[in-house]
Amino acid sequence: MALGLIQGLTEFLPVSSSGHLVIFERLFGVEAHTLAFEVLVHIGTLIAVLIFFRVRLSAIVGSFLRSPFKVSGDGENVRYTRLGWFLILGTVPAAIVGLAFKDYIELAFASPRWSAGMLLATAAILIPTKWAKEEDGELNLIRTIIVGLAQAVAIMPGISRSGSTISAGMFSGISKSEAAEFSFLLSIPAILGAAVLETPEFIADLSNKQLGINYLVGAIIAAVVGYLSIAFLMKVIRKGKFFYFGLYCAAAGLLGIIFL
Length: 260
Fold this sequence. Notes:
Elements: H1 2-12, H2 17-28, H3 35-52, H4 54-66, H5 76-100, H6 102-108, H7 112-126, H8 141-153, H9 161-171, H10 176-197, H11 199-206, H12 209-238, H13 244-259
């Protein structure tokens, strides 16, 4: 339950949910979670995204099904179809990295000190957003690739996925609100892909009834808290306070290195 709470709080806040889970387990002697647990609580946060952005997602799916290859020109349907393709394209880098370096990524999850060090890297990404120019550029092919590459880097524990992708969007010229929304929407295929990849281990773990119940409770908590976290972060971004999370990550990373 506690890990589900941490997942819900930190999945969308730019402070690295995976890094916090690794550090929390070591500091408080909590039994290490499996990748199956990681997938299930991520599904909980996925539900939060689907509910929060249900209107936008419905428009994307509807436009994509009506005219999947009409991506040029103006009009609401064209913009939503284009956004659908951008989501697919933005997912490709993370998919390649996740499949190619799966074993190395799993090893990184076993190192709390690595996670703490990567929190410092997240801080280095977030703090400069204080000086990012206020721009209102639209999402395009180049900006999508930049954000997708940022998401690929954030596969490692301790590097925030939302922090990296939102920052990349802001620095590439996308408006703050649109960068945040695209980051959240981009988490959908990433989470689904991870869930499919870990299905065998997931099924094996759920054969333990008590373990399965614990995981389910964690997923529900992650979904509820994740929804609230999205709403909170959107308000913070609109107020221009996104860089504050970088200060937190710097403090958490330093403390983690010292005490782990």
